[in-house]
Amino acid sequence: MSKATRYFEPSQTQVFIFMGTSGCGKSFFGKLISQELKVPFIEGDELHSESNINKMKSKIPLEDSDRYPWLQAIIDKVTKLANEKNSSCILVSCSALKISYRNVLRKNLIEQNIIVWFIYLKVDIQILKERMQKREGHFMEADMLESQFKDLEEPNNEENTVTVEANNNADLVKKIIVENMSMQ
Questions:
Q1: Which residue intervals of the chain are DSSP H helices?
Q2: Could you tell me where the DSSP H helices lie in 86-166?
Q3: How confident is the model at residue 10, as a pLDDT?
Q4: CB of 17 within 8 A of CB of 117?
Q5: According to its UniProt record, what is one Pfam family this protein matches (predicted)?
Q6: What do you get for the CA distance between the two ends of the chain, in Å?
Q7: pLDDT of residue 125
Q8: CA distances from 143 to 43, 51, 106, 118, 134 (A)
Q9: How far apart are alpha carbons 156 and 141 in whole angstroms?
Q10: pLDDT at 49
C-alpha cells in the first residue's frame, strides 16, 4: 500500500474500499474482515437504485450517469456512519472501476475529514466467471463481466491503494488484506 502523503489526526475515520469487478470478493472479504475486526461494513450493492438493479438484471451495463448517484449514496452512508458512530474504521464494497469514480469517492470523503484507502481485489476473468456461475440470488450475472473489464481502470500507482491478487485461497487473501490495513 502506498503511504499517505499528508499527516492525519488519530481521530480521523479511515475507510477501506474493497474494489474490483463483480465476483472478486468485495462483499465476502468486507463482511469477513468487518466481523473479525468488529468494524462497520457497508454493502455498496445495497445502495444501488432500483433502476440500476433492473438494468443489471436485464444485462444492460451501467453508464457513468447511473453510477454517480450510486457513488453519492455510498459517500452519504460513509459520512453518516462516521459522524453517528464516531467510527475510526469503516469497510465498504464498491466496484470503483474507473479512476474518475475513485476520485469522486476520495474528494468527497476527504472533504469530510475521512481518510480513503482502496483495496483492489484482482482476479483472473476465468476464475471470476466460475465464481459468478456458482453464486445465487445476485443481480449481476457472469455474462456481464466483459462490460466491467471494459470499464476497469486498474489503480496503478494511485495514492493510498493496494492490489491484492485474490485468485489465491481466501485465508491467504484475508491475511494479506488485514496486514495491509494494519500498516495504516
A1: 26-37, 50-57, 64-85, 99-111, 125-134, 145-151, 170-182
A2: 99-111, 125-134, 145-151
A3: 53
A4: yes
A5: SKI
A6: 9
A7: 85
A8: 22, 19, 30, 26, 13
A9: 27
A10: 93
For residue 16, give the DSSP letter: E
Cell 480513503 locates to 116
* Cell numbers found for residue 160: 493510498
Ordered by where they begin, the domains of the chain are 13-182 (3.40.50.300)
Q: What are 145's strand-pairing partners? A: none
Identify whether the C-beta of residue 180 lies closer than 8 Å to the C-beta of residue 1. Answer: yes
The reported pLDDT for the residue numbered 135 is 55
Q: How far is Cα 121 from Cα 84, in angstroms, rounded to an integer? A: 29
Residue with cell 468486507: 30
Report in angstroms the alpha-carbon separations of 56 from 5, 109, 133. 38, 27, 15
Q: Tell me the CA distances in angstroms from 91 to 3, 116, 180, 182, one per residue in order.
A: 19, 10, 14, 13
The CA–CA distances, whole Å, from 33 to 45, 47, 170, 182 equal 18, 20, 11, 12
Question: Within the chain, which residues score under 50 in pLDDT?
Answer: 1-9, 138
